[in-house]
Amino acid sequence: MSLSMQAMVCTAYGAPEVLKRQTVPVPIPEINQVVIKVHVAAINPGDIYTRNGEMRIFFGLLKPRTAIFGYEFCGEIVALGEQVNDLKIGDRVCALIDKKQNGAYAQYAFAPASHVVKLSDTTDDLNAAALILGGITAIQALRDCAQAQAGMRVLITGAAGSVGYMAAQIARLQGLEVVCIANERGLHSVKALGFADVYDYKKITADSFTEPFDIILDSSSMLTFTEWQKRLKPNGVFVTTGPRLRNLWPILRDFKKTAGQRAKFVMGHADKTDMTQLVRWFENKQLQVLIDKVFSVTDVVSAHHYFEKNAKHGKILLKVLDSF
User: What digits encode the pLDDT tens for the residues 73-92?
Assistant: First the structure.
């Protein structure tokens, strides 16, 4: 393995054109880390918000401290750090990076072994790269934020997006009654999963529903808690993946609240048990992945433009293997 590699590097905050091809050092694994030859990386909203400077307060005031994006990816292990015992060189895996480290818009990336799950031969690279982040966010929203149980009634917005598409399927697997809201482009994709209660977001309001919900999972970040809480049951939970200003006060107010109507924010975090469960569900054909479009990693500028201009409809992926 060479000591250098090609990567698409964020050179400043700004439009997608700030992403430039550069030669950078290959990462060296530390204790409990692995180096992975990247096959496919996924683009996620965090990549966009970091690149355009919206999140500079967290990632560096003048330019991103981690200049190579790509939190979610799949590939093949090529090097092991010390104390890695459950993985081996040659394993095909899906992985999430440590958010403090550079990511997978590159030929190689490294990840903590606890953020890595082995794949079977039946799971292809595209599906593997698209599966994890939306899936763990959905699991953690339903389980940890909403304490979802069989028989509960859940409304999911953005049901054709990365989180919503997974959340609808996982909720159904867990025995919940699922109602979905999607954009016009995504209606067919959600209905194709077998869901009957699917609505166009442009044609509904909180007043469109009369029967209340135990859970409202706003994976599109388009709802307002103060408007939609009238559609929650007395102990209902409103969970959003985007803490916009209009929902910030309810989320802060309800941070430790355990009863009554509550507003919660979810940000999916790496958890090997949750990641393994997602892979098993997919391999057992209990989950499907929705992929919008695949770009070469060297065309990441076009990919970021596409992400920003198009209604969310599954994952947008970057093919890295043999692309530089």
Answer: 999 999 999 999 999 999 99
